[in-house]
Amino acid sequence: MEKTFAGARLRQLRESQSMTQSELSRLLGISPSYVNQLEHNGRPLTMPVLLKLTETFGVDADFFAAQDTARLVADLREVFADDTVGGAISAGEVDELTTKLPEVASTLVALHRRYREARENIATLVSEQGLDRTAAQQPHEEIRDWFYQRRNYVAELDEPAEKLAAELRLHPGEVRTGLINGLRMRHGVRVVTEALGTDQHRFEPRDRVLRLAPTLRPGQAAFRLASELALLEMGEVIDGLAGSWPYSGDTARRLARIGLANYYAGALVLPYRVFLGAAERYHYDIARLSDRFGVGFETICHRLSTLQRPRTRGVPFSFVRVDRAGNISKRQSATGFHFSRVGGSCPLWIVYEAFSAPGRVLTQIAELPDGKKYFWLARTVTRGTGGHGDPGKTFAIGLGCELRHARRLVYSAGLALSSTAAVTPIGMGCKVCERPACPQRAFPAIGKPLRVDEHASSLVPYPPLG
Q: What are the HTH cro/C1-type domain coordinates in residue numbering (predicted)?
């Protein structure tokens, strides 16, 4: 049985009760020195002590389980990769800090984000035009940060949405009809279909009319109906969630409301237990799930990345949407996979290769510089926006999980997944990537001195010193 060291969690629990070590020792029937050793990870939790703690404080044993610090490690490593910080810390020290002092590590990450935002805002204010905000953090990034902190799962919306789906009897193939009936019966909203120009839908609260564009596919129409139903059903909850994060302004808060309404819509159209059950039965075959629920590839992938309900978890996925130019327009993660804010993305990542094989699902076993391996699948999606000659939209959708989960996916059938599997070394972006010999590098790593020799050349674009 693996030993459980939970010093930080035990200290957090004790301090939340305003209790001294001596008081805790009396409750547990052990010596104060024993409590001190437990809190400093000098001794592991024994089963009798663990049972006494759960009984005394009314917490689950999972509260003391080893925490997955992969995401925090990735965030902290980016902090110390920032050349403006001027610090250096080894991978071992990062691991020790996140394991023993996770709250301190989280505070450092939060402080660095504030520091970076302050620098970006200052750069904006002193720019020559005075109006260039491209360097400042965009409101959409703030929303992504919020979902990242929640591991892309929002119980306050997911569970009520699942309950309402059952009440409205939203069955595949009948979702749109069920939502229209629900809007009419519960909120007096009438749904009409008519041309709306470039808008996909428009709700008029005063007249209680929801207008849908005729060009919407059935799955898209259902999603638009569900997002407006979210605001009507869960407006106060959504307001509370949007107000729980220090957004920079009203634009970010309004975008947060939209993001939360869209989350509820996904949970309503694809109810948690029904969808997770189908995903497990089909071994996460996205095409079969798309046919089963009548929604597109991207919607299925996005919902798969949110299946992290405690005690009923699906495969923890990271979800990303990129365009041909490498811009990431959507990113959500329930895993330790980290999307860097600096240095762009890695050109060796399978997500970008998907553009060379439109409509096909490509797979890749990717290894990060820290040795963690991930299984990625990627496919393009294309949407038309009008008639002949009008530009359409093409994106690559990526869905990835830690390699240890890959056997649960139909896409891994026939692939070697052992430690000897062929892997593609990727990084989080050239500016923070630790692979000095990568021939695909587009920028030198920040904070790393370069070898510059006018009498020698190298296959490596930016050879490091030493």
A: 10-64
| Tens-place pLDDT, residues 326-383 | 888 888 887 767 666 544 578 899 999 999 999 999 999 999 888 889 999 999 999 7
Q: How far apart are CA 417 and CA 106, in angstroms?
A: 33
- Helix residue spans in 40-174 (DSSP H): 47-57, 70-81, 91-100, 102-125, 139-149, 155-168
Q: How many CA atoms lie within 13 A of 171 on its CB side?
A: 2
Q: What is the DSSP letter of 4?
A: B
Whole-angstrom distance, CA of residue 161 vs CA of residue 265: 8
Q: What is the pLDDT of residues 372-429, one digit of tens each?
A: 899 999 999 997 656 666 667 899 999 999 999 999 999 999 888 877 778 999 887 7
Domains defined for the chain, CATH in brackets? 7-64 (1.10.260.40), 70-137 (no CATH), 155-269 (1.10.10.2910)
Angle at 302 between CA 316 and CA 204, to 5 degrees: 140
* Contact predicate 304/319, CB 8 Å: yes
CA dist 331 and 148 (Å) reads: 9
Q: Dihedral, CA atoms, 176, 182, 187, 193, nearest 10 degrees?
A: 20
Distance CA 181, CA 174 (A): 11
DSSP character for 215?
A: T
H/E run at residue 367: strand 362-367
Token pair 């892997």: residue: 423
Q: Which residues contact 40 (CB under 8 A, 6 or more apart)?
A: 7
Predicted TM-score (pTM) above 0.90: no
Length of the chain: 466
Residue 148: closest CA among 313, 329, 303, 332: 332
CB 342 within 8 A of CB 444: no
**Angle separating helix axes 91-100 and 102-125, nearest 10 degrees:** 110
